[in-house]
Design a protein that fits this description.
Layout (H helix, E strand, L loop, with lengths): L2 E3 L18 E3 L4 H14 L40 E5 L1 E2 L14 E2 L2 H8 L4 E5 L16 E10 L2 E2 L15 H9 L3 E8 L2 H6 L1 H4 L2 E8 L5 E8 L5 E3 L5 H4 L10 H15 L1
């Protein structure tokens, strides 16, 4: 019995060029030679696949002497403000349950709020909280109690809603779908407004339109995102800043999708 084996290997030209053509005749009386040939083929086979293409980055042939074709960066447009200033209202208290300083005039801003705004290129100034601790409304009965403290949830888009011109317009399609199926946003509140209450209130319904709703631990539904119909105002009943900038609770979503949500909302807010 005669067995003829021919191998031909071409390696990537940037590393090594090797061509091997071998014809070996093996007699049935020398089976051990066949074993060695198989071992040799197995050793060579990893080199038979071409190496991946090298990614060439744009470089200048002489880094010490750039040519006239080098890109020149224009000066920023002086008529445009690329660092808007955003005011954030402080919270009453010291942010540490009175352990740092206790008094009626003490207030603070959570660091996550500042980082959230700065991540999109804006500057922050504090608006010191000095008002009495009550909500000034034309109708004080619009808020209801909800069990939504320290919980992650999804956002459910209301039927036939248009997201054009809203905070969700630039979200990637896959991320929009995950908002409705995965717990990617952080809730931390005890009060909220139901969709029916908002729609039945003439002052609110003429100003806001509902984008998303969410449910608390008791499956009680509240408005989680609303958009002003004629003004650049968006109301959130969830915390887009916590995903990326707070780690004190294991409940806060920190997945890649959750971090993207923080950045997309920040970019929309500052754009």
């Amino acid at each position: 019995m005669n067995i003829k084996i021919k191998t031909h290997t071409n390696l990537h030209p940037t590393t090594l060029s090797l061509t091997m053509s071998t014809i070996i005749t093996v007699s049935s009386k020398t089976p051990h030679l066949l074993l060695w040939i198989i071992i040799l083929i197995l050793l060579i086979s990893p080199f038979s696949n071409p190496l991946p293409q090298t990614i060439m980055l744009p470089t200048h042939p002489d880094s010490t002497s750039p040519s006239s074709n080098t890109t020149q960066c224009p000066a920023p447009d002086p008529t445009r403000n690329f660092r808007p200033i955003i005011g954030i209202v402080t919270h009453p208290g010291d942010g540490a349950s009175g352990r740092l300083k206790n008094g009626s005039s003490v207030s603070y801003i959570a660091a996550s709020y500042v980082k959230f705004v700065e991540s999109a290129g804006a500057l922050v100034v504090p608006l010191v909280y000095t008002e009495p601790r009550h909500v000034i409304l034309k109708d004080n009965n619009i808020l209801e109690r909800y069990d939504a403290s320290y919980m992650a949830s999804s956002l459910q888009f209301v039927e036939d809603v248009s997201i054009k011109g809203t905070v969700f317009q630039r979200f990637p399609p896959d991320l929009l779908k995950k908002l409705s199926t995965d717990c990617l946003v952080m809730q931390n509140h005890k009060f909220g407004i139901s969709p029916k209450t908002l729609e039945d209130n003439q002052h609110l319904s003429s100003f806001f339109r509902i984008l998303t709703i969410s449910a608390d631990r008791d499956d009680k539904v509240y408005v989680s995102t609303a958009q002003a119909q004629h003004y650049p105002v968006t109301a959130f009943q969830w915390h887009p800043e916590k995903n990326a900038y707070e780690g004190g609770s294991t409940v806060i979503p920190h997945s890649e999708d959750a971090i993207q949500i923080t950045q997309w909302v920040a970019n929309y807010f500052i754009r």
